[in-house]
Design a protein that fits this description.
single chain, mainly alpha
């Protein structure tokens, strides 16, 4: 099992190495996004509004952490589905998934690969924040951030596996990934605290793992919150992980069985 997971990971990294320009273009896009929010914050005169006062930060600093955590949703909706699509395109998907013992290593390696890639991009975010945007790191609690990312990995990966089920069944187009990412962006608190949403819409954000990840990360990064201080957020993320991840694996296995019966696993 472990050897298969390592094999799939090595395969993905070797493929990524052949697209160096795409990787660096992604880093440039990330830096450009930071610039946009930095100048929006300047337009607001870098004020600390009432909603952000509990963190003691301005709008840019809030978005800075929100973007880093939201970046890790790249390990979720759309990415595992993209991996499924790529293997379909190469004609190797049926050969891989027809063997029952390959399903978990395939899914886990796809999620882990995207998580590691997101981690590299997040390091770039942090360096950019330190060198160009004056973000302070004095309040960060490293242990809390590690725990947040650990539980977020399983939660975000589960959403990605559910999304991959849609790709297996319907071949092209993945509105589920679009809806998940859009909902997470609007309601998850990445770009603004969801509490400002009208008509009590912020309550919907409680059902999104990314909301609890961002909420915990803001405290761990700026308020030096210990794991005890964010215990409620970590507990909720753990519940998401324990329930969603096994359920997504079972859903994927059932979907693979169905597409094998239909003979459509490698079809476009």
């Amino acid at each position: 099992m472990i050897l298969k997971t390592i094999y799939f990971l090595k395969k993905d990294f070797r493929l990524k190495k052949s697209y160096k320009f795409a990787f660096f273009w992604g880093l440039f896009s990330s830096f450009f996004s930071l610039l946009i929010f930095y100048y929006i914050d300047l337009l607001m005169e870098r004020r600390i509004t009432g909603i952000l006062a509990k963190y003691g930060i301005n709008y840019f600093n809030y978005v800075f952490i929100g973007l880093i955590i939201f970046n890790f949703t790249g390990a979720g909706p759309g990415t595992v589905a993209q991996k499924v699509y790529e293997e379909k395109y190469c004609g190797s998907l049926e050969e891989i998934l027809a063997v029952k013992e390959n399903i978990f290593p395939f899914l886990f390696s796809a999620s882990l690969y995207n998580f590691l890639l997101s981690l590299a991009e997040s390091v770039f975010y942090l360096l950019s924040g330190l060198l160009f945007f004056g973000v302070k790191f004095s309040g960060i609690n490293i242990i809390s951030m590690i725990l947040i990312l650990f539980f977020s990995f399983f939660s975000f990966s589960a959403l990605g596996i559910f999304s991959a089920c849609f790709t297996l069944l319907f071949k092209r187009g993945n509105p589920l990934a679009f809806l998940m990412n859009s909902a997470e962006g609007l309601l998850g608190g990445a770009y603004f605290p969801s509490v400002i949403l009208p008509f009590g819409l912020y309550k919907i954000s409680y059902a999104l793992p990314v909301y609890w990840s961002i909420r915990a990360a803001q405290k761990a990064f700026y308020l030096k919150a210990s794991p005890i201080d964010i215990l409620s957020e970590l507990f909720i993320l753990a519940i998401f992980s324990i329930t969603l991840f096994p359920l997504s694996l079972a859903s994927f296995k059932a979907t693979v069985r169905k597409t094998l019966l239909w003979g459509s696993l490698n079809q476009f």
